[in-house]
Structure formats: structure tokens, C-alpha cells
UniProtKB/TrEMBL annotation:
Domain annotation TIR: ranges: 19-177
Biological processes per GO annotation: defense response; signal transduction
Protein name: ADP-ribosyl cyclase/cyclic ADP-ribose hydrolase
A GO MF term: NAD+ nucleosidase activity, cyclic ADP-ribose generating
Keywords: Hydrolase, Leucine-rich repeat, NAD, Repeat
SUPFAM superfamilies: L domain-like (SSF52058), P-loop containing nucleoside triphosphate hydrolases (SSF52540), Toll/Interleukin receptor TIR domain (SSF52200)
Highest taxon listed in the record's lineage: Eukaryota
The reaction(s) this protein catalyses: NAD(+) + H2O = ADP-D-ribose + nicotinamide + H(+)
Record carries keyword Transferase: no
Record-listed E.C. numbers: 3.2.2.6
Length: 955
């Protein structure tokens, strides 16, 4: 209970000092008012803590006053005592408190005063008896009270037992409140910054900004600030512009403010404008910037034209917003410096100047930042396996500081059970709000592209996705490519080795929005990927639904078969994407019920939609596709393990069909339906044994897979042989030209000073051992080799007339046999002269070896089915004698490498950091490069292989 405090003779009595945030105290007066709370008030007063407390029980009609004070507070103390649950007023306050906690407006510290947290959470024992006694179960508010009581104990609070020292407990509580108070003050300082901070005196005086900056955790910011400052030459009389770009939450504004605070003092005219995105974009309303920059003066008399200026313009979303500044660049005093931040680099493409892309935090920086927000600001012990649990959240945040901050706040003070509970759905409301802004500003076609990628096409090839987003209309095709590039310019996606990548944060947001897009955005296009929703629609919906754009169903999650009625798909006239797949194994080799079709059609199937572009149906149950199937826009057709005999009885026009997969369809006898597929690029007929009819080879512009297709007719075999011979000659010549005579089996490696595993390595670990989980059939579909990385500390290791080698032992499936066990070198340092050299710094070794080693293991194994999906990879440093104990492998990395444009990209999990894939490409090109003990300047001065290797590494 709470109320303002006044003098001792009055009902309420204000605390004598109004500093810091207000602390609302919720308690049961009958238990605590005349003992512990009295001492607490005295200590709060001594500690200058601003509190709000009710000295007497208020009547229920005054509850609105208390609610108002709760909303004005930033911290709430909730004292659960023996009789707490018997007070309706206490419980009503608790409901309001938790409502504000959920909205992110209030922090709560629960105190369990001679009661157990479990009793409060589960409303049991004496506490439960107080809550439910005397017929109170029928009270209308009871469900709200129960929800509030269940929510509070999940937040780590303070527990005072019967034998505990109340004095010691009080001292600890004051410390806890002080820590939370410091954090609130820090956040308040940020919130109180106006969108445009200016305070200027006389027109000829310095124009500057005065604002509070809370102490910021420096993780990674110092290095980024240094990189930014290198782009501006403050000794030059040339007017310079630096554009800071990056995704939401990456730290652009923070970096710009730090830069302004550090360097702005050199200039007599300096201004910073925050949140320009929210400023008007209309031509008639753009005078605000002119007004602020001219400061009431006319034209040439303004300071910005007479004095060197330092200007920061933050969060620009449209070039029109800074039109006045850009139009007057020639008139600005020479030597001025301008910093512009944006999350859409395309809006500044025509603006001259250097561009700085803010990099994401590396793993160490990210862990420190998460620890800062999740642990450092609370007086409690984090979960014992903090590092293990943190890794999941680090992977999700992807080095984004804003996401790490919000995740840390969400986890702060929570127990291990809550940490694990949050893992499946990390994207809390604050994270969604932060990243939703970028989505809301997209055009409708851009939203379509973003949601399609998030729900269906993450990690697919760019050309493949662009084809699916477009149609046979050339203008739409150009538009689709533009939309995809626009998303990249806005940092909503990125490109890596030809594939489209999307951060986990944005992907989870996109998948959630994809389900409700038809409601919120009025696009009329919903994407169904949630299992229960898809099953419900396929089995129960009997009404036309024009909003369905795509369906994704994992049949391995079906507990029983489902039947699709004949006209089910006719109810979805705008369906573009249909994918029935099995996440256990796309090749079905380890699926117990491999022959069982979980989705079947009792009768015939009707599907007249002309919008379909992507039709994937594992174990398609019918002998042919529906006769009314309109393939005019069909691009990708995959029917593996199906009962299909022919695609259609009649030839249909398929002008856009590029990819067809009929593998393991053992009933297939006729492919004549594809004779009009002039755009066909790939046809997979693996283990389609009875195949008899094949189109003439001279009309085939595509690649074929006929593995185990043993019953081809003689003519078909001859055609394939001739076609394959011609293709082989071309391939041989191409490889010879590309490799410049180098052996395709050769190991390529590089070494340079550093301490981080590059971000493009899909699997990482601390220490010398890595045990990655690999995707099924990882050695197929464009697999070309593996990349290995080891971070080695030499501890001033001396080299003289010896070689140091970093080696890797790969044990697939953890069985040491000739078929699954091999080792390979990663890289090394050698010294052949008599002079002794000392290796002082930590080094990064990266090696790449092609697929031949893995392929050899598979051939020796001779087994059919899935290749091993588990591996144990150990790194060690050796010399001419044996293992070098003085050298320590600090970290290691492993990644599967696939050729550009390989077809089955969606099945792979390795992620490559945008902008860093060049280092992998460089490794493939350089046979061997070693750079030992070279600093940054040395690396930049190397003009041959060293430059390529070092400059491509962003560690």
C-alpha cells in the first residue's frame, strides 16, 4: 500500500529529499507497518531514496490515487507477508504494478517476508489460505490476482526467513535498490535527450549541445570510434562528410554522439540533430533545418558560412530532410566536418563522402554486453551455466547491441528456468518495437519480399529468390530484383556467397508479421508456417481464402495422416508457395516410415491457381499433377519420393520452369510434359529407375542427375553420354583456366596475428575441441570442402630450425575407423635459418581443404544412407618432434563450404558474415600465405598475397 508522506501528525508524509526515481512500496500494513517498514523509511531517508508510502490503510475509493502514484514511480518494492493475500487493496496494487512492469515502465523488487516464493507463486499453504479463504474464490478479480502473483516470483527477489537478521537484510535491500536506481537514472538521462538538442547563447558565441550521458559500457565502441575518426582529417581545410550506416540497434547514434562529444570541441560552431527520421519530409515543412542552422541570421551572415562547423545529423531516412544542407555545401566554411547516420544507405548514395558500415559486436564484446545488462546491475548470482545459456542468446542477437541490451534486461534477475523458457522466443516486445520501425517504412512490394524471405526463403540463393518473387512479366522481374536490393540497402537482409541472409532477430519478427500481415497491413497475403495453423486450414477450412500466399508444412510433425479434399487448393486462388517437407531428412534414408505418405488425397485434386511459383510436395500421392494445374508462373517443381508417373498427360506451356526434382520417384515413365520448359536449368532424376522417355539432348539447356537410374532406354543413354562428354570437356577446360595449373586437391591456408574466429565460420568453440551438428547430406548439393580455423597463443614460443604446424583431427560420427576418421593440416609457421625467432602475439590460422578427403571416407565406408551428422574436431600444435605443450589453442572454428549458386542452399545452416565472405574467397585463391608477427601497418604494406589475405580479415 502506498501514499505520499507528510508530517508525523498527518496521514501522509513526503520524504524530505526528492532526488532520484520514486520507489513505490506495496505492503500489508497489519504485518509490517510498525516494525520493518518503519526502519526501512528511516534508511531510505538517510540514503536519499525518494519513496512513496501509505502510512494508513486507504479506502477503496482512493485506489485511483495509488494507481496514479504507481504510474509515476520507476521502482516498486512488493513485500509478500503472511496476511498480504487477504488484502484486496494490496492485490489490486500488485496487478497495476505488474501491468506497468510488463509495459517496461517499472522495475519491481519482490521481498518474501517470512513466506516462501513457491507459496506465493502457487498460492498454496498459509498464503493460499489467506487468498482463497471465506468464499473469496468467487471474487471477479481473482484471475487477475492469480496472474499477478504467478508473475512476480519469476523475478529474483529477496527472501527473509524467520531466523534471518532483519538488519543485514535491510542493508542488502538498500544496496539492491541503489543499483536499480542507478540504472533507472542512466535510462532516464537517455530518454530526456530531445530529438534535437541545441542551446546557444549570443549569436557569435559557440553553439553547442549540453546533455547528460550516462556511463556506457565500452564494449567494442572504442575501436569503432577510432575507425570512424580515421575517416575525418581534422587538420585539413577540406569539407568532409562521413556517412554512418547499419541496421537498427547496431549503435549508429551512440557512435555519432561519442564522436560529437570527443571531437566537437575543436569547432566554434557545432550542432547535433537526433531523430531526424521523425522530422517532416514534405517540401513545405522542411524549413526546420534551415531555421536551426541559420540561427535567425540571413544567408552569408550565418555562422555555418563563416566558421568551421561540426554537424551531426542522426537517423536520416530521406535525402529531402537534409536538402538545405546539401544545397549549401559549396557555401559552408572550408574545413567543416559533417556526420550523417542512416539505416538506409540508398538515401545517401548521391551524397559525397566516405561511408562507415558499423560492424556487429564480436563474440567477446557481445558476451560482455549481455553480462552487463543481465548480471552486473543486479545483486544476484547468475545461472551456473551462464556461458552455455548465453551462447544461445548471443547467436540470436547476432552481435546487435540493442538486441543484447533488451535480452539482458529481460533476463536480469531471473532464474535458470526462466532463461531456458525464453530461449524459444527471444524476441520480446521491446525488440519488436525497435526493429518494426524499419518494416513499417517499407513499400508494399518490399514488405512482400521481406516476409517471403523470412517465412520461406532464408539462406536461399539470391537469383532463386528473385525469380520466385517475380513472374513472367519482365517489368515485375526487374522490380523483384530491385526490392531485394532495397532490403539489403536497409540492412534487413544481406548477401553472402550469393545467398540471402537474414539475422535471427529480423527473421523471427518477419515470421510473426507474416502470419498477421493480412490483418495489419491490408496486403491480403498471409504466410502460414505454424504447424497447428496449417493443419487446421488444410483439414477444416471450407471457405474461400484469398489471403493465403504460402503454406509451409513439416510432415514429420504430423502425428497422424491428414487428407486434403479435392477442392481444398481451389479455395486459395492466390497461393504462390506450397512446401510439404520432412525436417528429419530430405532424403528419407533414416526415416522409419519412409514409404508412408502423411498428406494424401483420397480422390482427385483440383488446383487451378495461376499464381503458383513454388510447388514442393514430398511423397506426392497421385500419378500426375491436376489436369487444371496452370504452370504459367511455375518456377520450381519438386516431387521427390512421389508416386508420380508423368507430370501431365498433355504438354503445357512452362516458360518460367527452371528447377525440377523427381528423384526417387520410381513410378516415373514419361517426361514429355517438359518439352516446352525452355528455361529448365536443372532436372534431378536420381533413382527414378523405370524412366523411358527423355527429351532430345540437343534441346537441353540444363544439368541432369541420373544417379542409379538403371533402366534408361538405349537412345536416352546415348543422348546423356554425348551431352555429358561435351559438358565434361567444357568443365575440364574451365577448371584448368581457373586454377592456373594448381592441383585441385591442394590445401590452402593463411595465418595472421589476431584473436577472433571470423564471423563467417558457422561453428565456433572456446578451446581446442569443436563438436558441430551438421545438416543431413551436407556433402552434397554443391559441397566443395571444409574451412578450419584455430586461434593459437604461442606464449613467446621460440622458433629455430623447426616447423610449427597447426593440425586438425576430424572424427565423424565419433567412430575411429578408416571411413570416418582423418586428419589434415590447418597451417603453420616455419623457420629454416639459424636465427632464433620469438612468436609473441596470438595468431589466427585458417585452412581450407576440398571435398576429396570427405569423399574418400564415404567411398571407403560403402554404406548407403545419410552421411554422419556429428563430428568431433580437435586442433593441436605440433613441431618436428610432437605436440607443443607451450602453445595453446584458445578458440576454433569449422564451416562447410559450398560452391556459389548451388541448388540446395536452403538445407545448409552455415552462416557467413556480410562483408567477410571475401576472406574465404581469398583463401581459395591463395595457395599458401603466412604472415607472422606483422602489425596493421605491415599487413597493409604487403603488396602480393599478404595484402589479399590480411586485408580481407576483419578481426
Amino acid at each position: 500500500m502506498a501514499m505520499t508522506t507528510t508530517t508525523s501528525d498527518s496521514t501522509v508524509e513526503p520524504p524530505p529529499i526528492q532526488l532520484g526515481p520514486q520507489v513505490f512500496i506495496n505492503f500489508r500494513g497489519a504485518d509490517l507497518r510498525n516494525n520493518f517498514i518503519s526502519f526501512l523509511r528511516g534508511e531510505f531517508t538517510k540514503s536519499h531514496i525518494n519513496y512513496y508510502i501509505d502510512c494508513d490503510e486507504l479506502r477503496s475509493e482512493n485506489i485511483d490515487i495509488l494507481f496514479d502514484q504507481i504510474r509515476k514511480s520507476q521502482i516498486a518494492l512488493v513485500f509478500f507477508s503472511e496476511q498480504y493475500a487477504n488484502s484486496d487493496c494490496c492485490l489490486d496494487e500488485l496487478v497495476e504494478i505488474m501491468k506497468n512492469v510488463k509495459a517496461g515502465k517499472l522495475r519491481v523488487i519482490p521481498i518474501f517476508f517470512n513466506v516462501k516464493p513457491d507459496d506465493v507463486q502457487e498460492q498454496k499453504n498459509a498464503f493460499g489460505a489467506m487468498l482463497y479463504g471465506k468464499g473469496r474464490r468467487k471474487i471477479d478479480k481473482m484471475p487477475q490476482w492469480e496472474d499477478a502473483l504467478e508473475a512476480v516470483p519469476s523475478i529474483m527477489g529477496c527472501v527473509l526467513g524467520e531466523e534471518s537478521s532483519q538488519y543485514d537484510f535491510l542493508v542488502d535491500l538498500i544496496k539492491k535498490v541503489k543499483k536499480v536506481e542507478e540504472k533507472v537514472l542512466s535510462e532516464r538521462a537517455i530518454g530526456e535527450r530531445s530529438s534535437m538538442l541545441t542551446s546557444s547563447g549570443d549569436s557569435s558565441s559557440v553553439t553547442t549541445i549540453h546533455h547528460l550521458r550516462p556511463p556506457l559500457p565500452p564494449y567494442g565502441m572504442a575501436q569503432r570510434l577510432e575507425q570512424l575518426q580515421e575517416r575525418l582529417d581534422f587538420g585539413s581545410d577540406v569539407t568532409q562528410i562521413v556517412k554512418i550506416v547499419g541496421m537498427s540497434g547496431i549503435g549508429k547514434t551512440t557512435l555519432a554522439e561519442m564522436h560529437f562529444d570527443k571531437c566537437g570541441k575543436r569547432f566554434t560552431f557545432r550542432k547535433i540533430f537526433l531523430g531526424i527520421r521523425d522530422k517532416p519530409k514534405n517540401e513545405d515543412e522542411l524549413s526546420w533545418l534551415e531555421t536551426e542552422l541559420l540561427n535567425g541570421k540571413k544567408g552569408y551572415e550565418a555562422d555555418m558560412f563563416k566558421k568551421k562547423s561540426f554537424l551531426v545529423l542522426d537517423d536520416v531516412s530521406d535525402k529531402k530532410q537534409i536538402k538545405f544542407l546539401l544545397d549549401n555545401l559549396p557555401r559552408i566554411k572550408k574545413g567543416s566536418k559533417i556526420v550523417i547516420t542512416t539505416r538506409d544507405k540508398s538515401c545517401l548514395e548521391e551524397v559525397p563522402g566516405d561511408t562507415y558500415v558499423v560492424p556487429r559486436l564480436n563474440e567477446n564484446e557481445a558476451l560482455q554486453l549481455l553480462h552487463y545488462h543481465a548480471v552486473n546491475n543486479q545483486d544476484y548470482t547468475p545461472p551456473q551455466n551462464f556461458i552455455e545459456l548465453s551462447q544461445k542468446f548471443l547467436d540470436y542477437a547476432g552481435g546487435n547491441p540493442r538486441a543484447l541490451e533488451e535480452l539482458g534486461k529481460e533476463l536480469c534477475g531471473k532464474d535458470e528456468a526462466h532463461w531456458r523458457k525464453e530461449l524459444p522466443h527471444c524476441c520480446n516486445d521491446n525488440i519488436k518495437r525497435a526493429f518494426r520501425i524499419s518494416y513499417d517504412e517499407l513499400t508494399d512490394p518490399q514488405k512482400d519480399a521481406f516476409l517471403d524471405i523470412a517465412c520461406f526463403f532464408r539462406s536461399e540463393d539470391e537469383d532463386f529468390v528473385t525469380s520466385l518473387l517475380a513472374s513472367n512479366d519482365s517489368h515485375e522481374s526487374i522490380g523483384a530484383a530491385r526490392e531485394v536490393r532495397d532490403l539489403a540497402n536497409k540492412f534487413l537482409i544481406s548477401f553472402s556467397a550469393g545467398q540471402i541472409k537474414m539475422p535471427d532477430i529480423l527473421c523471427s519478427l518477419g515470421k510473426e508479421l507474416g502470419l498477421i500481415a493480412s490483418v495489419n497491413d491490408n496486403l491480403g497475403k498471409s504466410r502460414m508456417w505454424k504447424h497447428n495453423k496449417v493443419v487446421s486450414v488444410l483439414m477444416n477450412n471450407k471457405e474461400k481464402d484469398s489471403t493465403v500466399r504460402g503454406i509451409l508444412l513439416d510432415v514429420s510433425q504430423l502425428e497422424e495422416e491428414i487428407a486434403i479434399a479435392t477442392d481444398k487448393l481451389t479455395l486459395m486462388p492466390n497461393l504462390r508457395y506450397l512446401n510439404f517437407f520432412d525436417s528429419r531428412c530430405p532424403k528419407q534414408c533414416k526415416v522409419v516410415d519412409a514409404d508412408e505418405c502423411k498428406v494424401y488425397v483420397p480422390d482427385e485434386l483440383e488446383f487451378p491457381s495461376k499464381e503458383i511459383r513454388y510447388f514442393h510436395w514430398l511423397k506426392f500421392p497421385l500419378p500426375e499433377l491436376p489436369s487444371d494445374f496452370n504452370p504459367g508462373n511455375l518456377i520450381d517443381l519438386r516431387l521427390p519420393y512421389s508416386k508420380i508417373e508423368r507430370i501431365w498427360k498433355v504438354v503445357k506451356d512452362t516458360p518460367n520452369l527452371k528447377w525440377v526434382d523427381l528423384s526417387h520417384s520410381t513410378e516415373l515413365v514419361d517426361l514429355s510434359a517438359l518439352c516446352q520448359a525452355k528455361s529448365l536449368q536443372r532436372l534431378n532424376l536420381e533413382v527414378a529407375s523405370p524412366l523411358a522417355v527423355l527429351r532430345p539432348a540437343e534441346q537441353v539447356p540444363s544439368s541432369f542427375i541420373f544417379t542409379n537410374c538403371g533402366k534408361l532406354e538405349h537412345l536416352a543413354k546415348n543422348e546423356i553420354t554425348c551431352y555429358g562428354h561435351n559438358k565434361s570437356r567444357l568443365l575440364s577446360e574451365t577448371l584448368n583456366r581457373h586454377n592456373k595449373g594448381l592441383s585441385f586437391e591442394a590445401l590452402v591456408a593463411t595465418c595472421f596475428p589476431g584473436s577472433e574466429v571470423p564471423a563467417w565460420f558457422g561453428h565456433k568453440a572456446s578451446g581446442p575441441v569443436l563438436e558441430p551438428e551438421l545438416p543431413r547430406h551436407w556433402s552434397e548439393s554443391g559441397f566443395v570442402g571444409i574451412a578450419l580455423c584455430a586461434i593459437v597463443s604461442f606464449k613467446e614460443q621460440k622458433i629455430k630450425n623447426n616447423n610449427l604446424q597447426v593440425k586438425c583431427i576430424c572424427d565423424f560420427n565419433n567412430v575411429k575407423t578408416s571411413s570416418s576418421y582423418f586428419n589434415c593440416p590447418v597451417g603453420g609457421l616455419s623457420e629454416t635459418g639459424d636465427e632464433q625467432r620469438t612468436i609473441k602475439s596470438t595468431h589466427v590460422f585458417i585452412g581450407y581443404t576440398n571435398w576429396l578427403n570427405i569423399k574418400k571416407c564415404q567411398e571407403e565406408d560403402g554404406k548407403k544412407g545419410c552421411v554422419p551428422t556429428k563430428a568431433s574436431i580437435k586442433f593441436q600444435v605440433t613441431d618436428d618432434i610432437g605436440e607443443v605443450k607451450n602453445c595453446e589453442v584458445l578458440k576454433c572454428g569449422f564451416s562447410l563450404v559450398y560452391e556459389y549458386g548451388s541448388w540446395d542452399a536452403s538445407s545448409r545452416t552455415d552462416d557467413v558474415e556480410p562483408g567477410e565472405v571475401e576472406s574465404l574467397a581469398t583463401i581459395k585463391k591463395v595457395s599458401k600465405t603466412t604472415i607472422a608477427n606483422c602489425g596493421a601497418s605491415t599487413m597493409r604494406d604487403d603488396k602480393v598475397n599478404g595484402e589479399a589475405s590480411c586485408s580481407s580479415t576483419k578481426s
